[in-house]
Each structure stands twice: as C-alpha cells, then as structure tokens.
Amino acid sequence: MRLFHAILLLLIWASPLHAQQSSPEPLVVPFAQFPPFLYLDEDGQRTGFIVDLAELIGAEIGVSIDYLDVANAREWVSAQASGRSQLIPGILKLPPLAESNVFSDEVAADVLRPAVLANDQEMLASDELVGARIAVVPPAVGSEEPILEKNIRAEYNSPQEALMDLLSEKVDAVLLPPPVVYGLARDARVDGRITFIGEHLRKATRHVALHKSRADLLGPINEAIARMEADGRLEVLRQLYTISVPHSPPEMLQIGVTHLPPLSILSDGGVPSGFSVDAIQALAERAGLKIEFVPLALADWVRGPTVNNLDAISALVINDDRRAIMDFTYPILERTAAILVNDADSISATRIADLTGRRVGTIESSIFARRAAASGITELLEYETTADLINAQLAGDVDVAIIAPDVARKALEAAGLDGELRLIPLLREQIDSSIALRPGLGEIRERLNAVIPGYLLSDDYAALRQNYFGEPVFWTPPRIYGGLGAIATLVLGLLGYVVWQRLRQRQREYERQQSELAREQAHSTELSKLVSELERSNRELDEFAYIASHDLKEPLRGIGINANFLMRDALPGKAGERVLRMGELAGRMETLISDLLFFSRLGRRDDARVAVEPSSIIATIRSDLSEWLAERGGEIVEIGAIPSLKAEKLKVKTVLQNLIVNGIKYNDAREKHVEVGLASRVEVNGQVLENAIFVRDNGIGIGEEYRDKIFRIFSRLNKTADYGTGTGSGLAFVRKIVEEHGGVIDFNSTPGEGSTFFVTLPLAQDDVQSKTDPLRMPS
Q1: Predicted structure pTM score
Q2: Nearest CA to 752 among 709, 684, 674, 698?
Q3: pLDDT digits (tens, 9 = 90+) for 505-546
Q4: In this predicted structure, what is the pLDDT of residue 703?
Q5: Would you say 136 and 148 are in contact if contact means Cβ atoms under 8 Å apart?
Q6: What is the mean pLDDT of residues 645-650?
Q7: Burial class of 398 by CB neighbour count within 10 A (0 to 12, 13 to 18, 19+)
Q8: Residue 187 falls in which region: left (phi positive, over 0), alpha (psi -120 to 50) or beta
C-alpha cells in the first residue's frame, strides 16, 4: 500500500497546486477500523479510501490532516457530530450528521446490480429476471430486495461461496454490492467471466462531510473534488479500494502510446509506430479486437490508463505499485537492464545493488530510478531524456547510467558513440513489459493472453524484434521446436524403456485384468446412469414438495377461512358438525403438506456442522417443554455426560426432541420419564453400535412387527383419540437427519414396558471415551 501512496504523491505533484495562502488549523478525521474505508496496513500505517482521499483533499486546499482514534462506529459518528473531528471524506449522508455538518458534491456511489456470467448477459436482464436462481448472503445488502420475490432465493454463508456457484453455473445471478463481487473476481483473476446487468436496484451517494465550524472550506473542497474527478485521481482511488466497478469493455479499445524509441515512436504528425505498436496491432488482429492509439506525453503515459481515461497503455514495465491500479497481460517483451560505462572503465555488476557507492544516472521517474532507490543507491541523478543521460555519462557527471539495452543501442548508434561507451548487461535485473489495462477489462486480458504465447514463438515476432532491437535471436522458433523435439524424443525413449521392462513382468497380470476392467467399466456406466436418474428424481421431488407447500396450501387456507365464517352462523342439524369437521380436515391437510416440505428438505445442508453440546440441547428442550411436561407428569433425566457432536445444531435438537416427546406422549405410566445418555457399546437388532446416544422411556412400547413401519412418513400406530393429534412424520424426520449425518437409528422395545432408541452421530473428536458405563440391555 505504501507503493500506491507514492503514486498518489506523484499525482499531487503532477497537478497544479491550489493551496490557500494562509495556514489554517488542521482538519481532524475520526479513525476506526472499517475496511476498505479505514484500516491499518501490515506496517501499522493508516490507510483506506477515506484516509487517502483526506490526504489528497488536504494537499489540494492547503490544509494538513490529523486523526482522532475512536473505538467504534457510534463514537466515530459522534465525534463528527460534536465537532471533535471536522472531516469525513466518502461517507453517506447519515441522519445524525444532518444538523451539524455540510456535505460536498458526490465523490462515490453505492449501487446494487445483479452479477451474472458474461456469456449470459444477453439472455438475462435485471428487470426481466423471473424464475432465476439468485444467490444472496443474509443479512448483507441485496438479501431483501423485491426482485427476489419473482425468483428462486439461494442463501449462502459468504460472498466467496456465492461467486463460486455462479462461476460453476449452480446459480444464475448473485445479488451483492458490485464492488464486493468484482473485488473477489479480480483477486481470483476471473473478472473477465462476470458482468453486471440492468439499472441499479438501489443507489446511495457518498460525500465529504464537513463540520459547520469549518464550513468555509466547503467551496475549496468541491473545487478540489472537481479537479480530482477531471484528472482521474478520484477514479484511481475508487478502483484501488473497489468502491466503484469499472465500465465494461468498449467496442473500440483506446491504447495510450508515447515517444520512447524503439519501443514506441511518434512522428511529427503524431502517427505511432515502433516495436510495441506493431506487436499490439498483431496481437489485436489475432484476438479479434478493434484498437486505436492515442498519443500521450511520457509523464502521462507512465501514470497508466485509468488516469488518462483510456483502456490500455502500450508495453509498460510491470511493478508492484502499478499492479495495484492496473491489470497486465502476459509480458510481450522480456529484457535485462544494462549499464553504460566509459569504454576504459572496469566495472563488474549483475544487479543494481552492486552499484552502491557510485554516482548512478537514470531517466527520471523510470522503473530504474525506483529500483535504484529501493536498492540503497544514495548518489542517484535523474535526467529527462536518454540524450541527457548519455551526455552526463560522457561528461563524467555520473559513473554509470542505468538504461534499457535496446534504447541504449539505438541512441548510441544515432549519436555515433559506439566506441566511446560500453554496454554491460545486468543479468539479474529482469524487465518485463506488458500491455497495461484499466480494471474491468478481464475479458480483454484473457483474449490477449490466449494469443500472446503463440505470437512470441512466431517468425513474425522474431523478425519484429530483430528489426527494432537488432538483437541476433539464437532461439528462433525452428530451433525452439527442434530442441523441444530432441528433448521429447529422449524422454519418450527413456519412458519406453521403463514401460517395456515393466510390461515383461506384468503381461500375464494385464491380460487377467482386462476382463475385470471391462466388467468394472460396464458397472460404472450403469451406476453413473442410476446416479443421474436418482439426482433427477430427487430434483423432481424437491420441486413437487415446493409446489405442494406454496400452491396447495392456498386453497386449503381458503377452505379453513370459509369454514370459520360458516361456523359463526347458526346451521341446521348436523351441518355445523360437518363444517367444523371440514375445517379440522383442512388444517390437518395443511400440516401434512408442511411436514412433507420439511421432510423433502432434510437432505439439504442448511447450516455448517459445528461442535454441538447435547447437554445444552437437552436443557433447552426441557425448558421449551416445561409446561407440556408438567401437564403430563413427564420428566427428562440425563444420565452421565454425552461428548460433543459435530453436526447441525437445529437438526440434533429435532432428533432428540422428537424421541423425547414420543416417549412421554405414548405413555400410560403414572410417572412418565425419559432417560437420555450415551452407550459406549451396545447390540441392537443384531448389529453392534458404538458411542450411541440412547433415549429410553417407560411407555407403551412397540411391537416387533412395526419395526419398519414406524419410520415411514405419515405412519401412526395408535388412534388419534388415544394419544392426541399428530401426522406420524416425526420418526421419519429423525431417521433422515441421522442418515444424512452418516449415522444409524434403531431401537429395542418390549410392549407394555417401554422402548429404547439408539442414535449414532459423528463426534466432535475421534476416540472419545464415554464418561458413562456401557448400557446393559436385558437378555
């Protein structure tokens, strides 16, 4: 981030100064940790959109900036409202600040637009999205938009998960603030695969909040904002911190080019040529792109495309500070740096750091100047042009001159100085030049990257490099292909020998395995078909359950409402009883539909599986059912300690509560009790279970003939009048949850004495030993 701060300083120095003549009191900015607006970087320095914008504004209007540390958002707003701080750039117009602050012109805007795959943008439009699968991340912005009512809502725990499913086409769109989605996509280098569609669904503007005690600065601040908007500095900030989403690729790309022979040459009429111009034209033709070149001054060219309101810059040297605000293709030119020395001087160096203690010259603001400063060169002299640098070397003003070798050769040849100065390559100083793109052109980057490797191996590229740099190219494409062919032949020969040796030993085994392999392949194909059919069937069942829940409930509610209206009137004979029965049946049917929907969704993973404490869940159930237990004379007894589980907490509660309620509900004993504990090892129905949670009651028991039937959905073994109402779906829910967690449920029971259900669920830690004695079942 410090590298970008250097760019901001360059931007300030490059623009006219508009400082006031006086030195007013500093403006105080409240500071708390709110990334990306306010935060401390890895070196503990204040940074963020608000900090950088405050520093730029202060430099523009000639006022220094101080900071006031606060603990939280409440104190942050309070400090500005009370006047303890006077400036917050890039804030929304918050109501608590309305009376005590004035607000500047707009500096940024928060908008909400759906993100879709770039390939789908022509088929989808935000105002026509109906029935689409839209990913949201509650409670983030976008999770409660009206557009979701017409579409299928898909909830995620994080923006990263939502974006991943959009890229894998599991959802059709993502509804989150565009800077969040774009920032994640750009970091993952997949920004070329997404785009944002339609008009914004929501918009809020950001401004500079200025306390009224300093309201006299509002005019100068608005003027500074206008200047920074015009020269691109404000857009650089917005894109650096992903406050705004860049524009989509235009039909015609505008590429900035400067006079820097032989990389790029501008004629007197401004017509561009040179190595990078010819190379980019060839690449654009191969990638199917339309381009036009825009002449720039060198000082503007090095600042990149965004500041110049262009799409790209030709052949810019890659470095870390530029990566923060630009996007780069693969390198189109790889070189090493070089130094110019007097022919009689003897200097041995392979990197810039080896020049420490010497007077070093270079071109001002160049990559070599920055590398020299970073390498600890203290006597560094910068010159405006290559000719000035060479003249300084000849005059003895510098001991060595750091320069690009191709630039040096052309300049020495033009000046006739080949015999007076010597060029020494710095073999450990690599220079990679690439096409620099503004953010938002990920698709263009990928199209260029797809053709760059092939172009660099072509005869056209070798001829272009020879033409402009005059370098004898040893590794021409034929030599590269020949060398690769020889290496491939040698590798294949060695592999063939190894394979031949092994085949001699494994021939018989190979023949025996052929028939088995054929059978396995046939089985795998059939299994794949069955899996696909099962997945399709499950999707259809989910869709059916969804329709049943949302579409079939409406007429049932209508029946129930009308039945209630009829019951208010005096009905003759048995009509009243029949209407009452009709309402009860409608209510029961609605309950059955709800249970069906719940059952169909149990296979889905709604929550993360975390460490769950069964004792805590049992205590919650005991509290929730306290009145119901008291009415029925029931008691829940926890025996020993049950280790932590790794499961979905709400589903574990569903399992235990259903088993406990059944144990109390289907119970004729005067004192009804249900015991819950852990059996380290127990045999149930012919199988041995380890670390099984048991729920034991003294109820009516279950006959052996009903062992399978009780787990079927909507299956009741007892009449409703005997033991209350219900749908018979509880144990079906329990089994599906347990099996979804990879567990087993079974039971032992004696009619008239009670039942014991055993459930295995994954433990939070392996090899957990039960703190209770193993459960002993009667023989």
Answers
A1: 0.50
A2: 698
A3: 777 776 777 777 777 777 778 888 887 787 777 767 666 666
A4: 86
A5: yes
A6: 87
A7: buried
A8: alpha
